[in-house]
Amino acid sequence: MPRLPMPWSKKRGQRTLGSPFAGVAGEVAFSTAAFLSGVFGLSLVLISRFAPQQVPDQVPAEALSSNLSSWVMGIVSVAAIVIGATRLIFRVMHLNASDEMRSVIATKAAALERLAPGQGGESGLPNVPRGKSITDSPGEYLSYRLPILAGQDGILGPALLALFWNTAWIILLAVVVSGFWIDRPRWIIAGLLIPFALIGRWSFQYFVSQMRQRLGVGPTVVEISDHPLKPGHAYEVFVSQGGRLKLKRLSVELVCEEETFFRQGTDVRVERHQAFGQVISKQRDVEVDPQSPWEQQFSIQITGNVMHSFAGTHNAIRWKFVVKGDSRPWPSFCRSYPVVVHPPDSIPNPSQR
Amino acid sequence: MYRAGGELKATWRISRVSVDELRRLEISVLWHTEGKGDEDLHVHHFERITDVPLKEIGVENEQSIQCVLPASPLSYHGQLIRLSWCVRMRLFLEDGREVLSESPFYVVTELQTAPCVATPSEGETQPEEIQEKKVIARASRASQTRSTLASLRR
Fold it and tell me: I want to staple B40 with a disulfide (CB 3.0 to 4.6 A). Which of A154, A296, A312, B133 is the partner?
């Protein structure tokens, strides 16, 4: 029995299930249907607004009777028109264009954007991050103080969670109390107050523990003699750990990590793998005091045959210094300080092409 | 093996396909990623030859392509990411079919004798095995190219 053609195609690794032509035809049909239904809906809204007597009998009177339903239908219709038209134009423009041709068009568009004022020039090393923000801060002992990787040591999230949740709980409490005050008790909201209070207590405790960890562990400072790094070259690294704590272990490492983004169903997932690790220091039983922070300066040599920093759309290779500590009263900590590694002995040449 | 920032010179020709069967031809020097993540692709050099120039140049004769390679990215063979450079030719035939042929190459620096390879962690594949896999991968890629070219010689 002959199989009916599917109006879609599906990618399974290197294979594509279904005909690519059927997939394109299905997408074009869907976009056209979305566009036309949007036009139809918007027309109805405009007619009902400016010429109500022209609305067809089949359309229920309630559907467009109120201002709210007109607005909702108008917004949905405009959204359908925009989505349908955009997808349709995009698909038609990309018909008959290979992956390479699309990449060339995208590169030309990016080059035009860079010509705009304030966009900056080429670094001469395509797909190598510039890492300009890394050298923003001068160091006390060496040339640059490295910034901590954003989002690793944040206390803002737990603080906001605790603040907003407990504020909402106080408002609910006020509603319940006012209900009892005017002899109209709200039992359901009153019943919800207890579990909500437990969540509020947990969020506050979490915030306090994060705060204690932050204050107890103290700041970690990493400074470096030069940046960007190059394989085969030697550098000085200064590390300082403050706070009041007894550490079972304290280690400093230079790490190269592969990072890749991929779609699994409708989710976008990220996976990381340590491709290279160089232990700079590993010490046991370290005592840190606010008056005498742990301070060390190391000499490191970057191995010759390692991959440079790389940033693509879905894949990246990142380098960073990682300071890890197993402490006693406080939870263990791990802080990362990103750096950029250039290809070995590369000479940036903006006019290469 | 080509040096980053150096000049790439290559020759190509199409045999046993008449120029009348070709609608157009695209030849690109590009890098792309392979591995677990979605593919990144960037075309460094691109030429598109349509039907009239195709007849003028005569594709059955040896043609040359040359460009200056960029300083980065370098070829890389990692655990999650592989970054590969290649010269890719895409033929668009009159009957609507497309034929793709690739010739991979490595981009390295003067100091390197081989492309960068990720250092395996404990319990992972040893470097010798990776080298072996790389050879197999190259061999399979070469056989794929041969089969693509064979399909041209209908």
Answer: A312
Q: Roughly what angle, to the nearest 10 degrees, separates helices A67-93 and A20-50?
A: 150
**Which DSSP category does A138 fall into?**
B
Q: Is A54 in a helix, a strand, or coil?
A: helix
Cβ pairs A/B, distance under 8 A: 143
Greatest CA separation for chain A: 86
**pLDDT value, residue A318:** 93
DSSP string, B62-110: -EEEEEEPPS-PPPEE-SSEEEEEEEEEEEEETTS-EEEEEEEE-EE-T
Q: Does A314 touch chain B (CB under 8 A)?
A: yes
For residue A308, what is the DSSP state?
P
Do A263 and B38 lie within an 8 Å CB cutoff?
yes
In angstroms, the CA B37 to CA A270 distance is 8
**Torsions phi, psi of B20, nearest 5?**
-70, -25
Question: Using one digit for the tens of pLDDT, what is the confidence trace for B33-71?
Answer: 998 888 899 999 999 888 777 778 877 888 889 999 998
Interatomic CA distance for residues A301 and A299, integer angstroms:
7
Best B26, B116, B117, B144 member to test A by mutation, with max A CBs in 10 Å, is B116
d(CA A243, CA A49): 68
**Which DSSP state fits B31?**
E
ipTM higher than the 0.90 cut: no
Cβ–Cβ under 8 Å, residues A242 and A220: yes
- Pick from A99, A125, A315: which is nearest to B72 by CB? A125
B76·A307 Cβ contact <8 A: yes
Which chain B positions have a beta carbon within 8 Å of A101's beta carbon? Answer: 26, 46, 48
Burial class (CB in 10 A: 0-12, 13-18, 19+), B41: middle
Interchain contact A123–B (C-beta under 8 A): no
Cβ contacts of A184-191, under 8 Å, gap ≥ 24: none
Q: Report how far residue B51's alpha carbon sits from residue B93's, in angstroms, rounded to the nearest whole number.
A: 10
Q: What tens digit of pLDDT does each residue of A112-130 get?
A: 655 444 344 446 788 898 8
Q: Is A189 on the interface with B (CB under 8 A)?
A: no
Helix H or strand E segment including A286: strand A267-288
Q: Does residue A263 belong to the interface with chain B, where contact is any CB pair within 8 Å?
A: yes
Q: Which range is least confidently modeled, A130-134, A285-289, B121-125?
A: B121-125
